[in-house]
Amino acid sequence: MNKKHLIHLYNRVGFGILPKDLDELSRFSLDENIQHLLKKSKPITPLVVNTSTLQEIIALKNTDEKKRMLQKENRRLLADLNSEWYHQLNHSTELLRDKMTLFWANHFVCAENDILQTQQYLLVLKKNALGNFRDFVLEISKNPMMNKYLNNKQNKKEHPNENYARELMELFTLGNGHYTEKDIKESARAFTGWSSNKTKFVFRKNIHDFGTKTFLGKTGKFDGTDIIDIILEQPQCALFISEKIYKEFVNPTPNAKHITQMAKVFRKNYNISELMEFVLTADWFYEDKNINVKIKSPVELLVGIQKVIPYTFKKDRYFQYLQFNLGQKLLYPPNVAGWPGNKQWIDANTIMLRLKLASTIAQQKEIELEPEVAFEDDFETFNKRKKNKNKLLFTTVDWKEFNQQIKNTNASDWQEVLIGSNLNQNTLDLIKKINTNNIKEFCIALMSLPEYQMC
Amino acid sequence: MKRRDFLINSSLASGMLFVPSFVRAFENIPKKLIGHKKLVVIQLSGGNDGLNTVVPYRNDLYYKNRPNISIPKSEILNLNGELGLPPSMSSFKNLYDQGYVSIINNVGYPNPVRSHFRSADIWQTASDANEYKSSGWLGNYLDAYNQEAHMAIDVDNKLSLALKGKDISGIAAFDPKLLYRNANDPFFKKVIDHHMDEHLSEENLGYLYKQMIQAESSASYIFNKSKTYQSKADYPKNAFGKQLNTTASFINSHLETKVYYVSMGGFDTHFAEINRHKRLMNILSEGLEVFVNDLKQNDTFKDTLIMVFSEFGRRVEENGSNGTDHGAANNLFLITENLKKPGIYNNHPNLADLDSNGDLKYEIDFRQVYATVLEKWLEADPKKILGQNFDHLTFI
After folding, report:
1. Fewest C-beta in 10 Å: which of A198, A234, B246, B369?
2. In this predicted complex, what is the ipTM?
3. Are residues A191 and A328 in the same domain?
4. Which residues make Cβ contacts (< 8 Å) with residue B118, sequence separation at least 6?
5. Which residue windows are transmembrane per the record (chain B) (predicted)?
6. What are φ and ψ of residue A195, in 5° steps?
7. Which conformational region is residue A342 in: left (phi greater than 0), alpha (psi within -120 to 50 degrees), or beta?
8. What is the pLDDT of residue B202?
9. Domain presence at residue A123
10. A119 versus B3: which is more confidently predicted?
11. pLDDT tens-place string over residues B382-395
12. pLDDT the model gives residue B8
């Protein structure tokens, strides 16, 4: 397979590729490479942390103090889970599944300060990431954390709560403008009683509305499952998901012709894996106009750098601050619409931070970051965190591993994988001035170029 | 130094002989935007308890709902015979007595959301309760008039959503010197020096380069323009005091910046509210008084409007831990010497007519306040920025 195409493929379904893997994989054909990716992504490794400390608190008697302890411990464990997620991405063996999980986490957006529910929710994402979209939507609709997050627990026959029904259509399946306010009201009735206890779906029939509903032109005694099936019958649903996948994996500027082709494949049986296979083997996926045109998300940037320069943070908290400052902290989406992505990652401050990142990490330099402040912190804590914010980034770099990686490689190998071959003359002039005898310095310099922000 | 001179000088200094075309475009800013008016927005994060800030101390319902956390009548600093301030706000009372303060009651929006994050987003993006926007109202202001990043400064290290536009965003400048150092990192400069207009025409990569140039030019502008002035005023020794001090030094250095954004946290008073809220009000009031006096001494207060808001108010009834839970409508302060109607602007909060959660109902949409500030103070078109029309108020 053509090396340029292989780099593009791994930029999109992974976090870049190293020269040694590029050599290895380029011996195989495109189809072989895609089959390889799909096969490697068959297993499902759950994302979990040790929650025994939480269990001890749960066993205590119910008091306000216990409530506060639970909140604090959940926050701490979610931070652990955040680090664990990064660890898994850094050492991913199920690359396509992991990348798709990130995509779905920004599609079926949900967040609560609850470690057990979060782990369960992430498992739903991972399990269905390459599975059947109907099963996926159904499982998400019954997920306890989602029930809570979008208030379906409060959706009762006497007092319907429309929040879930609205977002199901607006954000998860159809997109704005493809249903009426009446459709929202009617489908909300169908989801009444879809509730849950802590980690289990519960159908509460005494608050379910068993009456007749009219939804998207159909009439019947619908429940939530019927609503999902009617939604999936709409051609718009496959188009909506295809467009979102296209913008994430192919090009932020949609191409109607290609998206229609995708939707046709997807609608057959809503198999996500087949859709991805179609996209990744399409000629247009490898066209020059789709290469290096997307701005990396902070996750793509951080994991991408980590693959080249294996680093760890001395303190997890500093790593969390860094994610916060870059504008994407995993498990903490801004709202149910998720991170808007692409250009919205960038402002004057984040671009300076992004360009400094590789050299700061590699040289174990300090960087000034804004600490996150929880709303419930009192002013003294707030003030203290602000004051102590200086010099927060301390990394440990595994140079031995790095030296392994650069064995038998030269500067141009790294230039090819890190910033691609389609470069502007001025950028080429700049690169010429960098010392190419020292591969380490060279890689750091390349990762400090705006071109490295693209994938 | 005129902006044109500055651009030419700074581009010479950085070795950029050609000012890129998109920077040149900034010189076509409509004239009226180059006015002197400044807006300082102060966000109280966590949901400030408005009823213990502007206290309805003649209202029995207030004392009935809050047997443990109300401010005793005897301690109230009276405002208009009905409403008053807690003693911790005596500095704020000084500003009020000079006619610099307008208190707008019952500010909120339809279908109030009681989540901090979501409600803060709604305020920052001026959206409806069920609408998700990815750019802020002040970012939209920059976008609508093709302003440079430094025209809206977040006095913080991370840019607030309020200042994020679609194409142009404000800049976070908690420490101008550090910002300048970052923007003048040798490699960063080298990359900028090697760009050409061809780079800028590429869709997303071009956007990155533009943001870099913007970062460098705005960081240099802020640093060079503000380094000569040092405030002598005695600000409270905390992060909020530092932010106000920095803001005053920017304003008193006559930066052309139109908008400053400052935030203070710690307002989520679910338990042991009395002492915590007292400290918060103290810090807020003292900070504001020093800030206003600092501006007055430099003759810049006349061109400054300060707006203080919080993402929501708190429940009327106290909870079981001597605190209050998340509420809805709240009061909002406007501080300037140009008020048309100083004092209490509108109806007092109605404690007898609450919503189903036991929260105050809103009477004025917060976007009416924004629309008024945009049109009457910043001389901008509110419809263009907020996306819809809102009735104006008459405080300025």
Report:
1. A198
2. 0.87
3. no
4. A335
5. none
6. -125, -170
7. left
8. 76
9. no
10. A119
11. 999 999 999 999 99
12. 36
Residue B117 lies in a domain: yes
Report yes or no on A127 lying in a domain: no
For residues A308 and A437, membership in a common domain is answered with yes
Does residue B20 form part of some domain? no
Q: Which pLDDT score is estimated for B198?
A: 67
CA angle B309, B310, B313 (to 5 degrees): 120
Q: Which H or E run contains A313? A: strand A311-313
Within this chain, do residues A334 and A208 fall inside the same structural domain, yes or no? no
Q: Give domain status of residue A394, yes or no.
A: yes
Per residue in B279-308, pLDDT (tens digit) is 999 999 999 999 999 999 999 999 999 999
Tell whether A343 and A397 lie within a shared domain: yes
- The answer to whether the beta carbons of residues A194 and A147 sit under 8 Å apart is yes
| Cβ-based contacts of A356 with chain B (< 8 Å) | 182, 185, 188
* DSSP secondary structure of B176-227: HHHHHHHHT-HHHHHHHHT--HHHHHSHHHHHHHHHHHHHHHHHHHHHHHHT
Residue A78 covered by a domain: no
B185, B194, B204 ranked by CB distance to A342: nearest: B204
So what's the pLDDT on residue B239?
86
Looking at the 3D structure of chain A, how many domains does it have?
3
Q: Is A147 helix (H, G, I), strand (E, B) or coil?
A: helix
Arithmetic mean of pLDDT, B18-26: 42
- Are B264 and B283 in contact by the 8 Å Cβ rule? The answer is yes
Find the domain containing B331 and state its range.
Answer: 46-386
Is residue A370 within 8 Å of residue A325, measured between CB atoms? yes
Does residue A423 share a domain with residue A314?
Answer: yes
Alpha-helix runs per DSSP H in A375-424:
379-387, 399-406, 411-419
Inter-chain residue contact A352 with B204, CB threshold 8 Å:
no
Q: How far is A31 from chain B (nearest CA, A)?
A: 30
pLDDT for A40 beyond 90: yes
Q: Are residues A316 and A407 in the same domain?
A: yes
Q: Which helix (H) or strand (E) holds A9?
A: helix A3-13
* pLDDT tens-place string over residues A187-228: 999 999 999 999 999 999 999 999 999 999 999 999 999 999
Closest CA to A302 of A274, A321, A287: A321
Of A125-139, A390-404, B232-246, which gets the smallest average pLDDT?
A390-404
Provide the pLDDT confidence category of residue A454 given band limits of 50, 70 and 90.
very high
Which residues on neighbouring strands pair with residue A218, listed in sequence order? A215
Given phi > 0 = left and psi -120 to 50 = alpha, else beta, which region is B214? alpha
Q: What is the pLDDT of residues A279-309, one digit of tens each?
A: 999 999 999 999 999 999 999 999 999 999 9
Same domain for A435 and A347: yes
Confidence of residue A375 (pLDDT cuts 50, 70, 90): low
Judged by CB atoms within 8 Å, which residues 337-376 of A form the interface with B? 337, 340, 342-344, 346-352, 355-356, 359, 368-370, 373, 375-376
The answer to whether the Cβ–Cβ distance between B208 and A386 falls below 8 Å is no
Distance CA B310, CA B211 (A): 31
CATH number (domain holding residue B159)? 3.40.720
* A409 and A441 together in one domain: yes
**Residue B82 domain-assigned?**
yes
Tell me if B37 is assigned to some domain: no
